[in-house]
Amino acid sequence: MSRQFFSLLAIAAVTVTLAQSPAAAAPAEVDCAEAKCIALTFDDGPGQHAGKLLDTLKRHNAKATFFLQGQYVKSRPAFAKRMAKEGHELGNHSYTHKDFTKISASAMRTEIQKTQDIVAKTTGVTPKLLRPPYGMTDLQTSDVAGELGMPQILWTGGSRDWESKNEEAIKKQVLSVAQPDGIILMHDWVEQTVTSMSAIVKTLQNKGYTLVTVSTLIKDKGVKAGDAYPLPAGWQN
Question: How far does the signal peptide extend, from start to end residue (predicted)?
């Protein structure tokens, strides 16, 4: 046999070995009791700039949680599919962003369930977390979330990106509210958030943060269905 044939065999053997090597396997789930974790969350999507955002997160090996509106999953299904495929967490942010404290329990259930259904149908993933629109919650919202088996996820700090729509202001605000075990609120429909994300992620990682999903962050915090986390001022779960 020719020397070229044996060279090809050697290349093939190395390729198979690398594919089966433990180093090539997916990394173990992050333990936030040991790591300095932070969760970046994006509401109201999938927004029209979600593709660029996903490119940035992939480039930096960072995970995020997307609290999706059902109406936009319906209109932009490819982004929702990609979010799930690339290991990001999909949460429920209602179907049409109605204030849950101003509608009936029945209407609230419909808003939540319609989003559960379309996210599951589109991506094969059923959201486990609920973020009430505007972060507005009350006892009725907690009861409905509890019935549906979903914790309510609020945030420890916001980017105020919807207000400033300015890259430098967004970066400054996010970094000012970043803290270990923090949950940061942003929006993937704000173009300036998406364009500033590479700098934000790099800075957080340089500060020692591991960017994780909300479920990873709260895994050992005893958050139950219906609970609001973190607690709004004056609340007691």
Answer: 1-25
Closest CA to 148 of 122, 125, 114: 114
| CA 95 to chain CA mean position, Å | 17
Which CATH architecture group holds 33-229?
Alpha-Beta Barrel (3.20)
Residues designated catalytic: 43, 187
Place of tokens 């109605």: 98
Q: If we measure between CA atoms, which residue out of 217, 219, 213 comes closest to residue 57? A: 213
Amino acid identity, residue 178?
Answer: A
Sites in the chain below the pLDDT cut of 70: 1-28, 232-237
Distance set, CA 73 to CA 35, 65, 115, 204 (Å): 33, 15, 8, 29
Contact by Cβ (8 Å): 196, 160 = no
CB distance 54 to 96 below 8 Å: no
What confidence score (pLDDT) does residue 233 get?
61
Residue 213 and residue 39 in contact, taking contact as beta carbons nearer than 8 Å: yes
